[in-house]
Amino acid sequence: MHASLPPLPAPREGSFVVDKPTKQQDKGVVTQVEGDHTTGNGYALFTQPNKRPGKHDIDGGQCTATSPSYSVPVPSIASVSYFFGQRDGGDDRNGDYFKLEMSIDGGNAWTAMKTYGDVRRNAKWETATADVPNGEVIF
Fold first, then answer.
1. Per-residue DSSP letters for 89-120?
2. How far is Cα 21 from Cα 50, in angstroms, rounded to an integer?
3. Burial class (CB in 10 A: 0-12, 13-18, 19+), 101
4. What are phi and psi of 127, to 5 degrees?
5. Model confidence over 60-109: pLDDT tens digits?
6. Can you tell me the distance from the alpha carbon of 94 to that of 106, in angstroms, rounded to the nearest whole number?
7. N or C: where does the chain have the smaller number of CB atoms within 10 Å of the terminal CB?
């Protein structure tokens, strides 16, 4: 869990998996894309494959995935492909949200690469980028 976030319980249902995402749509909103961001036929890390809308998604807590660390010997740009979709905005008392963050100091501080609040949003593959100084180790 990131140091900047208050402690939250683990979700009562849902977790991250590596699988081939299947398109899910509910009430006119795409909540999960079809396939990976390259060919559409590969695997992706995403939260629980929804077999039907509203089931097996993340509910009642926070779900966090942290990458391995990577050494960056020269100034670079970190690039992460992601999707985020949400059917209902403003309906969760704790607020649903999505944060994609990067750390260059071993996890003591985190920089937001992309953030979405509790809003209705169609899922689609997107890319977030951030500058990384040379000699850093990123997560």
1. SS--TT---EEEEE-SBTTSS-EEEEEE-S--
2. 9
3. buried
4. -130, 130
5. 667 778 888 888 899 999 999 999 888 776 666 666 778 899 998 888 89
6. 28
7. N
With beta carbons less than 8 A apart as the criterion, state whether 110 and 4 touch. Answer: yes
The type of residue at 71 is S
- The first and second tokens of residue 28, run together, are 């006119």
Give the Cα-Cα-Cα angle 89, 94, 96 (nearest 5 degrees): 40
| Residues in the chain, total | 139
Q: Are 53 and 24 in contact (CB under 8 A)?
A: yes
Rounded CA gap, 120 and 29, in Å? 8
Over residues 27-38, the mean pLDDT reads: 89
How far is the C-alpha of 95 from the C-alpha of 119, rounded, in Å? Answer: 9
Instruction: Assess whether pLDDT exceeds 60 at residue 46.
Output: yes
Tokens of 73: 């010997």
pTM for this prediction? 0.77
